[in-house]
Amino acid sequence: MNPIIRASSFVFILALLALMPLADAEETSSEAALVMSTDSAFIMQGNMLFGIGPSGSTGTFAYEHLLTRNREGGYDGGLADSWECNNDATEWTFNLVEAQWHDGEPFTSEDVEFTYNYITENKLWLASVLSMVDYVDCPDDRTVIFHMKSQSPAFLDDLSHCPGVYIVPKHFWEDISDPTHYEDEEWIGTGPFKFDSMILDQYVKLVANEKYHGKKPEIREVIIKVIPNKDAQVLALKSGEVDVISDVSPAVARSLEGSNGIEVFVAPGTRGYEMGFNLKNYPTDLPEFRKAMAHAVDRDRICDIVFDGYATPTETTFLMPSVAYDFVNPDVPGDDYEYDLEKAGEMLDYAGFADLDGDGWREGSDGEDVVMTIPITGMGGDASRIAEVLREDWKELGIKVELKQVDSSQQQSEYHKSNFFIVGMPYLMHDDVDDLTTFEVDSHFGTPNWYDYDEPDYNALAEELRNTADQNERKEIGYRMQEILAEDVPTVPICSSDVIFAYRADRFAGWEDAAPLTWSVDTKMLLHVRRA
Amino acid sequence: MKAEYLMRRAFYSFLAFMVSLTLTFVLLHLMPGDYLHSILPYLAEKNPDAARMFREQFGLNRSISEQYLLYVVNVVRGNWGYSFLYGLPVLAVIEEKLRWTLVILFPSTVLSILIGMAVGAYSGWRNGSKTDLSVLNFMIFVGAVPSYWWAMLLILIFGFHLNLFPLGGYASIEALDVGVRISDVLRHAALPVTALTISSVPGTYYLMRNSTLQTTGEEYVLTARSKGLREMEILRHHALKNAMLPMVTVIALELAQMIMGSVFVETIFSWPGLGLLTFEALRVRDLPLLQGIFLMDTLMVIFANIAADLSYPLIDPRVKVGENV
User: Fold this and answer.
1) Which of A428, A486, A509, B267 lies 20 to 30 Å from A31 when distance is taken between CA atoms?
2) Distance between CA atoms of B187 and B194, rounded to whole angstroms?
3) CATH number of the domain that B159 lies in?
C-alpha cells in the first residue's frame, strides 16, 4: 500500500479512536430536566416584542399574555384574572393578578400600559394587533382599561393568541431605545418558567419560577434542544436524548407505537383542512359546478390515506363543531354535501359539463376538457397528498386535476390564479363566529379574500357582526352567514386533523392532561407534566 | 512588477466583488415571495398593516434603485445590514455560523485532500490495473451516494446503535452547566467530519487520478525509468509534483464551494453552520442575510484564487507570479 495512503488512513483511524473513549458515557438528558426538541434555532434569539416568536419559543414560556385562549371556547386567565367590557365593547377592563417579574420587581398595571405605549410608539409590527385601541389607562395598580376607537367585541382574541400581546416589564424595557435590534439575553417575564442559560443554536435551559402566581410547575428544569431534522428528532427520542417530540407524522407515530418506554398521544382536531374554491376562475366560478364538486370529496378516504386515521371528517360550512360549539348553525346540515360521485356526475351533466367526445374527460362550455388547477408547495405535504386523492377520485368523475408546484411564499397569490386550494389552518381560525369574516370581500384592510368571494348580503352581515357586542346577536348573525356559505359553497370542509406527540413514558407523565393550542408543547401543557 | 501585479489583481478582485454584489442583489430581488409572507403567511395576508410596518422598519418601502445604492454604500463601509430573522447584524450572524462550519469543514477538507490525492495518484499511476479499476468503481459508488445518506448511515450505526458518538449538535447537555469543552466539540464533530470527508473524497480522487495519468506519458518519467528508479520513487519525486499543480486551483475553489455544500450534513447532524443558515435564510426569504452569505462566498472564492496563484511558485519554481501579465 502506498505509504501516503497508509499514513493518512492511520491518522484518520487514530483520530476516530482517540475520540471514542470520550463517548463512553451515554449522552442522556440530566436526571432532573425535561428535554424537548424544537426544529428551529432562531427561537432563542431576538426579543419578545420584535421577533415573530413561534409557539414554543424561549419567550413564550417566560412571558405571559393578559389572558390565553383555551380549547373549551373560552379564555384562561394569565396576568389578568377577570375582565369585562361595557355594553358596546368600546371599553375593556382587566383586573390584574398579584405577580412578580423574574427579577423580583412587582408587576403592576403600569407595565401593561407601558407595553401598549412602547409597541405603538416604536411602531413595532405588533401595533397592528392593537390598532383598535385608542388609549390605555390605569385607575390603580391592579386595574387596566383599554379604551377602543370603535366597538371591538373580538378584542380578547387579539390579545390572547396568534400571536397575542405579551406583557413586558417597564423597569427593564424603558431603557431599550432600539427594540428592532435588541437581543434579549435575560427574558425577564412573569411566566411559570425562568430563563436560566443557553448554548447558542443548541440548548435553552429554563427553570421553574418558584414565585409564579398561578399553578406552579411540577418539573424543576426544562431544556429545549435544537434538532432541525425530524428523523434525527425521532432517533433522539428513541435513544433517550429528548423526552418529547411534537408534530410527529402519522407514519412515524405508527412505527413508535409499542416502542420500549415510548408513548404516543394526540391533540385532537388541531388543524382544520378545507378545499377552497376560487370564484373568479372558470369553471369554479359557477355555483352549480362547485356544488357538484362538493359531493366528490371522499373525506373518510382522505382521513385514512393521508392522515392514517389521525383525523376526523368535517362537514359543517366552516366552523368546527368540536371547538366552535354553539356558534355552529345546527340548521345548516353538513350532509347536504355527502360523498356521492354518482350524484356529483349527474349534477355536472345538468350543469353542462358532459363527456361529449367520449375520451373519458368532461368538456366545458368552450368544448375543452375541464382542467382544475391547484397550487402545491413541495411534494409529500398534507395538501399535496389530499390533492392526489382528489385527483384519483375525480378521474373517475371525468375531471382533470393539475398540480401546480409553487414556492411557499407565492402560494397565497396563486390561490387567486387557480381553481381550488387545500389549506390546513389552526383550529383557532375555525372556532369563533368572527372567523367567518374570512369570506368577507376585501376581508382585512382592503385585500381580497383567498376565495375571491364577494356576496353583498354576506359582506353586510360581516360588517354588522363587527359592530355587535352582544354574544347572542353575534351568534344569530353568524347563523345567517353560515346559511349563505352553505348555499354559495366557496369552500368545502374536509377534516380536522390531530397533532401527534411522542414522549418517554418512563420519564415523565401528564402530557395528555392539557392539549396544546397548536402543534408544539406550550406552557399550559408543561404545567401539567410531572415525573413518571 | 510583483507589486503592480498585486495591485492589478486587487483591482480586478474588487471589480469581481462589485459585479457579484450587483448580481446577487438583482437576482435575490427578482426571487418571488418575501420574508413576512414566508414566516407568517396568515398574518401578512390578513393584516397588511403589519406588513407595511415591517417594510418601513427595514427600508423595504424605498425604491429598488434607492435600496441598491444604499446597499452598495453600506457594504463598502462594512455594514452588511441586519438579518430579518435574527434582528442582528448580518456579519455577526455569518461569523458565528462560519466558525462552526469551519470546525467540520477544515478537517474534512484536509482529510479528503490527503486521502483523495494519495489514492488518486496511486490509482492513476497503476492505470488499467485491477487495483485501479476496483478503486475507481468504489469511488464512483461513494460519489454517487448523496452526502445526507452517508450522514444518516453514520448516525444510525455509530450514533444510535453502537452509541459511540452523539447523534447531533456540537455540545452535550452538560455544557449548559460546565460550558462548551473542546473535547466535547471534537467528539460531536467526528461523525459530520467523516460524512463530509466520505462525500468529498471522490472529487479529489478523480482529479488527482486524471492529473497523474497525464504525467505518466511525460518524457521526464521515461528518463527516470531509464535511470532505473523504482516506480514509487518516480511517482513520489517526479510525477506527483507535476500532477499537483492543477490540483491547487481546484482544491482552493473546492474549499470555498464546500461551505455552501454542507447543508445536508449540517441539517442531519443539527450542526449550526453556514449551510444550514443558507437553507433557513432562503426558506424565509431573509434577503439581507442571503446577500451577506453570497458575498461572503464570493470573497472566499476570490481569496482562494489569489492564494492558489501565489502558491504556484512554491510548488513549481518555474512559475513566476506577476510576470507576463
Assistant:
1) B267
2) 12
3) 1.10.3720.10
